[in-house]
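Technical note accompanying the year-one report. For the benefit of new consortium partners, we illustrate the data format agreed upon in the data management plan: each record pairs a sequence with a structure-token string. No post-processing was applied to the example shown here.
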Amino acid sequence: MDPIYVSEFNRDVRPAAPGEFSPVSIGPIPADPPIVLAPMAGITNAPFRRLCRKFGGGLFVSEMITARALVERNGKTMRLAEFDPDESPRSLQLYGVDPYYVGEATKLLVGEDRVDHIDMNFGCPVRKVTRRGGGAAIPAKPRLLQSIVRAAVRNAGSVPITIKFRMGIEDGWMTFLEAGRIAESEGCRAVALHARTAAQLYDGEADWNAIGELKQALTSIPVFGNGDIWEAWDALRMMRTTGCDGVIVGRGCLGRPWLFADLAAVFAGRDPENPPNFGAVIETMREHAHSLCEWSGERIGIRDFRKHATWYTKGFPRSTRMRDKLIRINSLSELDSILDEGNPELHFPPRAMRVKRGKKGGRQKVMLPEGFRNDLEDATPPASEEAGDGG
């Protein structure tokens, strides 16, 4: 058997020992293994969640749904809020800046039995969102955050509410401890921290120390950590380092849904298998593309698949020319023709295990509404509910 691929970051990490990690639940929902697929706009739709569930267990969250659009029953929004008939638990991420619309959206989702779990987005760092006071800006106004969370929890009945947020706006303006305490006091059943600031976007290394600090501060609800889970071993290392109860997986699974099989293995006390060769990746790509086209029609589905195609092929030797073709595909037949040119025997090189996918690096100056800092205790909702990506 070939040696197990392990990067230098994780060369000394071993699979979980029996009983090492305590079972964790989000309200009545067990998280076993304690892994959550991060909600990512334009990515974690029903076809992608279905593919990830095929490889391993955990909690698989929908892409972000805007509360006001849901209340107004916008057609596209209602479509994005749908789940496969056999999908369980049904976990949806809700974005809202106004307690009224968040409350009404929660009533709709729960009253019509559309969800089993609602996660709320307070971490989106996109400029068009924060400049209107939404997303990652909301935790900087704790009374506003509290009123939004309260509206969701009070209208959720037995459906658990969780929230996801970042460390803060920028270095020197941290908000995560107060956000966590508000969530705990208002009845959230778990919290998740992306261990970067809004200014950091996806740049540099996540600060896992902040996850440990949050875990120490919250005593009655689980804390999930998010940031830099590129290999299954990273999840164990994060939990052992910080004491957190579970892990959120985002960019690490883009083009690599089999990461969930690796995660299941290490939490069960086994070494994961090595990454699939290119032939197996091609079959997964075809399955994913066909599923997207069945879900949204071939014209939209195949264009949506273009970004996934670049992630699936990233890291393989001599794959640049193929990616140049894949970003222009307009049909399933074009996809098949291009994939037929690939060498199915190609191995995934160990050096590519931690090649970053998805959002590019780089920092930003966080844009906030004029006068935002003047009264951080103000609980007035921002004027707009426009939202960007899942953050």
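Partners are asked to follow this layout when depositing records. Residues 278-352 form a domain with the Non-ribosomal Peptide Synthetase Peptidyl Carrier Protein; Chain A fold (CATH 1.10.1200.80).
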